[in-house]
Amino acid sequence: MSSVDEFTLIDLLNGGKQTIAFQRAGGVETGIGDDAAVVRASSDSRWILTCDTMTEDIHFKRVTMRDADVGYKAMASAVSDIAAMGGTPRYALVALSMPKSTPVERVRAMYDGLYECANRYRVVVTGGDTTSCIGGVTLTVTVIGETEPDKALLRSAARLGDAVFITGFTGDSAAGLEWLLGKNKPSEEWDTDPELKRYPGLIRAHCRPEPQIEAGELLRRSGFCHALNDVSDGIASEAWEIAVASNIGIDLIEDRIPVSGELLDYASRQGKASLDYMLYGGEDYQLIGTAPAEHAVELQMQFKEAGLPLYLIGYVHGKHSGVRLVRSDGSAVPLAKRGYNHFTG
Ligand SMILES: Nc1ncnc2c1ncn2[C@@H]1O[C@H](COP(=O)(O)OP(=O)(O)O)[C@@H](O)[C@H]1O
Ligand SMILES: Cc1ncc(C[n+]2csc(CCOP(=O)(O)OP(=O)(O)O)c2C)c(N)n1
Ligand SMILES: [Mg+2]
Ligand SMILES: [Mg+2]
Ligand SMILES: [Mg+2]
């Protein structure tokens, strides 16, 4: 596996001849390649289908997340891909694999967290599967959401003349993870230990991310939104996905990307650039997207009325040329398509 990165592997597995005839028929309007698939439900409704997995030691450790956080975040990350399509989450299926020795209290706590998130976003858990395994706990959450015909917000819809927006702070989750790993204390103590308590916002961003369902629905209803993606692997990687899928170029303006006070403080104390966490960290679950520049301010007003932030952080230009970062001095530097990748880093 060492020679194949995560995205090449997905293409390799799903691009073969045998997939073409049957797999691409049957009412599938958007197949593999976006945050979720879109399939025809009825003449006035579309289902949105997605799943996300959380695996012990890859997505969480005992020192980074409490059991309830693991369940909460497994649901939240899958719900986030429904937000990334502008959809409304409806149902979920949960697959759980765990070693035979797992204490029942641990699973109970995970499910408390999982249902807390499901209730918050009005998702009904309708089933799943449970197995034993060798190694750590794995939770896979499949979410089924809904939207109207032709309303799903795709990565491929960015157009020349669009502004690029983001719904909130990024980088906090990656910094929170680094902080928790560095302290190496039981995660149960993250809101009582005086030292851990120093960065509650960073820890919360990592352990209790908020999928942007309300923002996604507002973007869909506004009729202004073109492309949309959720930030699971870092802004750079997600902006690249929009640029490639839409065959356009994106310039992100460094000074416009919002940064939290806690991240600024944390990064400066570590002697690191906050921008590195924001661009390459991941697990933020904010929405990054594009809308025609002439409607961007109106969109911002709609967000303000709904009590939600929306930051304009860049623009779409010309032909496909990847993603660049415009620095304070006006220089534009190419951004690497770097971010979290399961098989390369
Ligand atoms: N093992 C797989 N088999 C089929 N499709 C997959 C597999 N893994 C990922 N995909 C699809 O590839 C696309 C990209 O996946 P991923 O990068 O995990 O999405 P996201 O980051 O939005 O959660 C999605 O459309 C997803 O459904
Ligand atoms: C212990 C630990 N190490 C590293 C990470 C960082 N990490 C793991 S997966 C991931 C990216 C998001 O997960 P992925 O499975 O790629 O979600 P998707 O893009 O499919 O939604 C990140 C940043 C973590 N959360 N926990
Ligand atoms: Mg996604
Ligand atoms: Mg994935
Ligand atoms: Mg995802």
From TrEMBL:
Broadest EC class assigned to this enzyme: transferase
Residues holding Mg(2+) 1: D52, D129
GO BP: any one term: thiamine diphosphate biosynthetic process
Keyword ATP-binding attached: yes
Sequence positions that bind Mg(2+) 3: D35, D81, D230
Described function: Catalyzes the ATP-dependent phosphorylation of thiamine-monophosphate (TMP) to form thiamine-pyrophosphate (TPP), the active form of vitamin B1.
Family: Belongs to the thiamine-monophosphate kinase family.
This protein's name: Thiamine-monophosphate kinase
Lineage per the UniProt record: Bacteria, Bacillati, Bacillota, Bacilli, Bacillales
